[in-house]
Design a protein that fits this description.
By secondary structure, the chain is an alpha+beta fold. It folds into 2 domains: 153 residues, no CATH class; 227 residues, no CATH class. The protein contains 12 helices and 9 strands. Helix 1 packs across helix 3, helix 9 crosses helix 11 and helix 11 runs antiparallel to helix 12. It is elongated.
Amino acid sequence: MPQVYRLKVDNHVCLSSSEENKCIVALADVKGFPDLPLTPNVREPNSKSSVYRQILDSLFVAPEKFGDKHSGITISVDSVKVISEYELELTIFGPNKGCNHHGILNGGHTVLAFKHAAQLKYKLDQAHVKVIIYSGLTEEACKDIGLATNTNSPVDMRSRMNAKGRYDFIKKYLQELELESDRKFRVSYYQNQSDAPSSTHCSINHVIKLLVCLDCNRYNPDAKTRRHPTISSLPREIKDSDQERISKLLHLFSQALWIEIKLYEIIHQYLIHPQRKGVDSNPLASIDIRKNTLLCDSEYSFGFGAPADLSLPIVAAFRVFLDSEYNWVLPFDEFCEDLIKHLWKTHLLDYLKKEKIAGNSIGARISRNNELWENLYTCASMYQNKLYRNMISQKNSNKSKNKGRKLIIK
């Protein structure tokens, strides 16, 4: 069933009208403004932002001048009906009907400020706000309008990509993976998303970084350029070519996330079991034991803060074990745990200790340290060669034993 809202207005004018599409501009009453859905807005409102505080202050200081100072609210509806000169009826279908584009296109902070102003009992009788109402628009048109009208504060690229549907293929895959593996992923696709943590580890950008780190075709240490997927490798915009490339890597997401989780478990064990008594309990650079880290797998949280890029060079080293079709050349479970422990002990641990002694904060610098990425990749490659030699030796040993048994039988 559609949802019907009544909007009280001081006056209104219909700029364009047809059987299917209408555009109405109205000066609406702030008091009693309907609680319209925020689904199509490119980002969720943030009550801590300066934009929100300015709106709330305006409602308190000079509510009668609010309509003159404020840019207004943009709304998308299925249909709009003129009840009278002072009242409009808005019909909206929700996401359950496949209509994600009905509701507030621009003005989420304003609507939130209206609610809080009413709770604080501000005098809103004389307050009005300009409202632009579109009816019958397509979802694509609503996305374009939402992006074009959200100009009061910068909209980050992540929110823009989400509004354009560029992350939909990743969302679909993660939803299917949640059902298959009985897990819940907390991934933020846009600014101020209320159902996901603000942690960088849970950003869709971080998910893409984890996948890109395993692109063994694009990033080849034998090449002159693009040897390793450092921080500059993350595509600023997800184009069709990027979507095709990332789609081929999606089946590796569980393993990439496992590597990150395992690394954080190793760091946790290192922090609670110091190697020597009487030494600094936290000799690792940029590891803050006063903070917490949330990973995008909702089951995993750790009692220390760490840069989101910390795991990336470790994840990237694992691409040694991938073929050109992005399949593991050996069963992942047979080498993954030993390899990550080996990489930690031989390189990453020493790197974090040296940076701590030097008083450096690694942050995003770890993604620009080509020497570290090169060392970890080389270490993983040497580990792979050793593993192959052991497998061949074991195979030859088994053959010798079987041959010996046959001779004894004769």
